[in-house]
């Protein structure tokens, strides 16, 4: 058995780890899901930015901006914790 130099073994290990790290991207459905989620996330954050900017431009009041931000994230705050609580008990 031929011994490889130390730096060569490290390089091989890094390439194997890198291959395992991105192995999910070999699956076509996962790539489509990942791209779709990325586009959706960009759209959601663009919408949040546009709404807050619009409120600030129309009212020029920081309190109204705060209310708009609170109303945007209110469903997440109100429904997020109760929806996440029963999940561990179902599995």
What's the short story on this structure?
The protein has 91 residues and is mainly alpha-helical. It has helices at residues 6-21, 28-59, 62-84, 87-90.
Provide keyphrases for this structure.
4 helices, elongated, 91 residues, 82% helix, mainly alpha
Outline the structure in words.
With 91 residues, the chain is mostly helical. It has a domain of 39 residues. The protein has four helices and no strands. Helix 2 runs antiparallel to helix 3. The mean pLDDT is 83.
Helix and strand arrangement:
Layout (H helix, E strand, L loop, with lengths): L5 H16 L6 H32 L2 H23 L2 H4 L1
Helix pairs in contact: 2-3
What string gives the helices and strands in order? HHHH
What's the count of strands? 0
Helix share of residues?
A: over 70%
β-sheet strand percentage: under 5%
Instruction: Tell me the span between the first and last alpha carbons.
Output: 48 Å
Query: Which outline best applies?
Result: elongated
Number of helices: 4
Q: Which sheet architecture does the biggest sheet show? A: none
Which structural category do the helix and sheet elements fall into?
A: mainly alpha
């Amino acid at each position: 058995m031929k011994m490889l130099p130390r730096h060569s073994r490290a390089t091989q290990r890094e390439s194997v780890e890198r291959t395992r790290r991105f192995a999910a991207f070999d699956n076509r459905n996962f790539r489509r899901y990942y791209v779709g989620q990325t586009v959706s996330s960009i759209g959601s954050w663009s919408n949040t930015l546009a709404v807050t900017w619009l409120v600030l431009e129309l009212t020029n009041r920081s309190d109204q901006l705060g209310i708009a931000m609170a109303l945007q994230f209110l469903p997440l705050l109100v429904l997020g914790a109760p929806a996440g609580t029963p999940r561990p008990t179902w599995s």
